Amino acid sequence: MCMETTTRGFLFEEGHKFHITCLTHDVARMADHAQQPAAEDFETDDGASSIGDSSATDSLASLRSSILDYRRENGRTYHSMSDGNITHHLWILTWDDNIAISPKKDGAKRVLDVGTGTGIWALDYGKPVFGVDLSPIQPEFVPPNCSFEVDDVEKEWTWKEPFDFIFIRCMIGSFASWPDMIAKAYENLEPGGYIEIQDNMFPLLCQDGTMKADFAPLEWTNLLIEGTEKMGCSITVAASFKRMLEEAGFVDVEEKKKIWPFNPWPKDPKLRELGFWSLESAMSGLEGISLGLFTRVLGWTSEETRVFCAHVRNEQRKIGVHAYYDVYGVWGRKPEKTDEDEETAATATAPPPAPAPAPAPASAPATAPSPAPAPAGNES
Q1: Which stretches does UniProt call biased (Low complexity) (predicted)?
Q2: Are 129 and 106 in contact (CB under 8 A)?
Q3: Count of CB atoms situated within 10 Å of the CB of 249
Q4: Count of domains in the chain?
Q5: Please, what's the b/e burial string for 54-78 (b: 16 or more CB within 10 A of its CB; e: otherwise)?
Q6: How far apart are CA 4 and CA 7, in angstroms?
Q7: Whether the bond into 128 is cis, omega within 30 of 0
Q8: Which terminal Cβ of the chain has fewer Cβ within 10 Å, N or C?
């Protein structure tokens, strides 16, 4: 789960395993076509803004009925609702209008988008992309470069050809084992191929003391952490992605760290814009991600959860609280055969260590000199 799954994440159950999965908003197709919330909609004091809940237009594709198997609970349909692509726009803004930040942000020939959601990233990438997700929420009619599959990536990967770029965004809380997922990606990359992971870090942070311990959105993020830890799917792993890639064998591993302001409290124009979209993202998905997790993992009732979400939603509008999330972009390269060959050759051609000098043979002990005769005494 991440901020993208707070907008597009819905908890569902498969057998006895829980997942937080990614669905997105259908508001912005491309960054420059999205309509930004107006600054005048926010008060400048500590009161709530006048922005209400946005109602995104649902646009479910009409696919084969055999795979339209959705789970209804608490009056909501889980893992089926397309709430838009607001968070996709937020990520594009975060990386200065870049759809990816690794060396494979363009030029890849065979790409896998893990947790593709509505497929917005795959559609925007513009290269041959295989998008995989657990539910068929992608558009039915797509350009020739895109192919979407319904599958569980925690199971065995069955693609016959390797990829040269694997992209994973906003999937914290979705996997029982990130090291296992990264190992699968490593195995399915061609030598020299790249993996890129983008996600945010929980909980909510603040550096200037304006966020108090009883601030409802902070309590909400702490409850998310508690619930996902009980599920065995941590949402506090983003800061560990760099280490995980290195341990999996990737080289040239790099990390970029940014922040998402909780709402448009910053004075910096770029951060303020990110705050607008971060708020819209969180507001839109708040109840969707909370209901399943709180009722089936934390033991809350649906009514308790909805009342709490309303309280969180009101507090989210307070621009006097200078809170933010850390967000990470991490990438690494699978070593090419030449890299491995050079390392092997260097080991093979290295001169053997010089043998230790043989110990000198033990010498015979020197013969002790005969004692000198005692001097003769005076005879009387």
Answers
A1: 47-57
A2: no
A3: 13
A4: 1
A5: eebeeebbebeeeeeebbebbeeeb
A6: 5
A7: no
A8: C
The tens digit of pLDDT for each residue in 206-259 reads 999 999 999 999 999 999 999 999 999 999 999 999 999 999 999 999 999 999
Q: For residue 48, is it within any domain? A: no
CATH number at residue 120: 3.40.50.150
User: If you search the block for the tokens 């993202």, which residue do you land on?
Assistant: 281
Q: CA-CA distance, 248 to 260, in Å (whole number)?
A: 29
The rounded distance, in Å, linking the Cα atoms of 313 and 301 is 18
Residue 119 lies in a domain: yes
Distances in Å between the alpha carbon of 259 and those of 142, 195, 273? 33, 22, 12
Q: What is the residue range of 128's domain?
A: 3-28+58-338
pTM of the model: 0.71
What tokens were used for 9? 């994440």
Report yes or no on 350 lying in a domain: no
Contact 202, 325 (CB under 8 A): yes
Give the separation between CA 244 and CA 242, rounded to whole angstroms.
5
* Average pLDDT, integer, range 261-268: 96
pLDDT at 141: 59
